[in-house]
Amino acid sequence: MSATSALGSQAPATVSFTTTLASLLEIPRHLKGEDEVRTKLKAKLELLPNAWQNRIGALLNLGRKAHERSHVVSSIPEEHQVTPLDALALCDKETRRLHYLERSLAIMCSERLDLDTGEAPVERAPHVASVFERAWSRFGRELASSEPDDWTWLAQHAGRTKTLEKVYLRRGDGAWWSFGADLDRPHRSQVGAHTTEGNRRRDNQSSGLASLANARCAERRALQRAMRSVRARMGIVSVVGETTGGAR
């Protein structure tokens, strides 16, 4: 089953699939009792068209297998070693605790797949995809297979504003990622030099993705794409798409 067939079925005209995902992710944040959360989610999921329920099930299964991914996501596996999850699995506390939906959305956003269609918004040149898209895919898999507190980040702001101009991200003691106009994998010494310079410019260094998710970003292609992926991992879905161009 292709990603397009699993995720890109026709949607009702009144509301987008992305908006529906955003509202589903909001429910546990606004309701305290587990029974109330389960009831509200079940009622909302059962009202969705079958095609959308299938999409949500496909996303949950993608997130559950995120730690096993080693390549660009181009299809949803048809076979599962365990019983595949359906949309109503989102009602289970354990499924939500393991953040299967958020993990899959991080992959989707890093791959730059439209949540409403399951497709890339532009054609990718073959050799560009082999370099930059593989890097984006790896970043998405790292986000999806890790916990938000596993990450450290260093922010570079535009002048004296609070607008994020560039961000450096690292999972544990791994290699750094950087996102500004483009994606890069800077050497540790380069990040160290930037940190020394950045401290004089009041740049911020912190741990955990939660403290980064709500940052205001400059309109830089790779930065916006990376931040959309980070926010997706935190369960924050952008209903209005950012302008990313052919973000690298």
Q: Can you describe what's shown?
A:
- A hairpin with a 6-residue loop joins β1 and β2 (164-171).
- By secondary structure, the chain is an alpha+beta fold.
- α4 packs across α6 (100-110), α6 (100-110) packs antiparallel against α7 (126-145) and α6 (100-110) packs antiparallel against α9.
- A 5-stranded antiparallel β-sheet has the order 4-3-2-1-5, sandwiched between helices.
- It has helices at residues 3-7, 17-30, 34-46, 50-64, 93-97, 100-110, 126-145, 188-200, 221-233; strands spanning 151-157, 164-171, 176-179, 183-184, 204-207.
- Helix content is 44%, strand content 10%.
Enumerate how many helices there are, as a single number.
9
Instruction: Please estimate the helix content.
Output: 40-55%
SSE string, helix = H, strand = E?
Answer: HHHHHHHEEEEHEH
Q: Report low-confidence residues grouped into runs of 5 or more.
A: 1-5, 74-81, 195-203, 241-247
Q: How many beta-strand runs?
A: 5
Rg estimate, integer Å: 18 Å
SS strand fraction = 5-15%
Any idea what the shape is? elongated
Strand sequence of the main sheet, in spatial order?
A: 4-3-2-1-5
Properties at a glance:
disordered C terminus; five-stranded antiparallel beta sheet; alpha+beta; elongated; disordered N terminus; 248 residues
Quick gist of this model?
The chain is built from nine helices and five strands. With 248 residues, it is of the alpha+beta class.
